[in-house]
Design brief:
The protein has about 140 residues and is mainly β. The chain contains 1 helix and 8 strands, in the order H-E-E-E-E-E-E-E-E.
């Protein structure tokens, strides 16, 4: 019986780990359907951070966040931290924020990986999660 309980616990833990936002994700613009960038999400001490690892449009390689109003103003988008302070919350990750470097706006964020962990709903919103928009990102690795 102890072995069965241990195996079940291992299965549950591996399933929870499998649905993690940690890794590299291809961003897809929800308005145009165009692939825009690769974001690498990392975890440290239970907190997730996402950085721009690659810009897919060759013309935007030297883009700067001219519209940003915080410490990222005028900084290169390549390598920029765009997801901050996200933590596990039931079946999703949230509590942090996401920056749209195109317009410099910062939104609250909710990350919800799919059951197979190959796609992730990324919801940026103001106030309640109902007031926002969702992009579907695709796992790169």
């Amino acid at each position: 019986m102890k072995l069965l309980t241990a195996l079940f616990s291992l299965f549950v833990a591996s399933a929870a780990f499998a649905q993690s936002p940690v890794g590299a994700w291809k961003t897809i613009d929800d308005k145009t359907g165009k692939e825009k960038s690769i974001i690498r999400i990392t975890e440290s001490g239970g907190v997730l951070t996402g950085k721009v690892e690659k810009l897919l449009d060759p013309a935007k390689q030297d883009a700067k966040c001219d519209e940003c109003s915080d410490d990222r103003k005028g900084k290169p988008v390549m390598g920029m931290t765009v997801i901050r302070n996200v933590k596990k919350d039931d079946d999703h990750w949230g509590g942090g924020d996401i920056l749209d470097p195109n317009d410099g706006k910062v939104y609250k964020v909710r990350l919800t990986p799919s059951a197979d962990n190959k796609k992730m709903d990324v919801r940026g919103y103001i106030g309640a999660p109902i007031l926002g928009r969702t992009q579907v990102w695709v796992r790169v690795e």
